[in-house]
Amino acid sequence: MKHNIAAAVDHTLLKPGMLASQVELLCEEAKTQGFTAVCVPPLFVKQAKQALEGSSVKVATVIGFPFGYSAIEAKLAETLLAIVDGADELDVVINFTAIKNNDWTFVANEINHLMPVITANNRTIKVIIESGVLTDDEIIKCCEIYGAAGVHFMKTSTGYAEKGASVHAVELMRKNLPAHIQIKASGGIRDAAFAEALMDAGATRLGTSSGIALAQGKASTTQY
Q1: Which residues form a coiled coil (predicted)?
Q2: Distances in Å between the alpha carbon of 132 and those of 9, 51, 136, 224?
């Protein structure tokens, strides 16, 4: 089945040392290509919001990125600042260090502190679970916790772990999440065939810096 890849793309640029001029180009590309959102570091949210004014393209940013082990209070502060700056969507890295230490109480407590802020401000939250470093059982447990919390999306990866998105992880998430919770695949999506396979498996968003190539049915050499 052929999908509208462009409409699923979160056009992403999260490299350390990136330039403001690159953010301008990212936003122009997103508008031209019909992408759903751009995803930029918190520093550039205001700039992206201004650049996209009058368009339908949303501004997403990252919270607790890329390792997820910052304090709950720090993630709350980041979330509030991003909302003030105009972010429409928050891609929040969960504390997978807590998961690896089997501290599911902490994991649940974290999301239960973040969700009231997100919902009160009518923003979208995507929780990044870093599926490539989790076991199937851990992914299923995440689905239970975040499904109960009412997040809008679960997202596979930051793109910084040793393994990014996989069809298996997306299928597992889709099987174990409530139907209304969407899935964003990210990390290593650099060719159209892989993008199609991820969407076949249940992904409705694609986080990638290769969006233009994917929308054209080509492969890319970018890293995210």
Answers
A1: none
A2: 21, 34, 10, 14
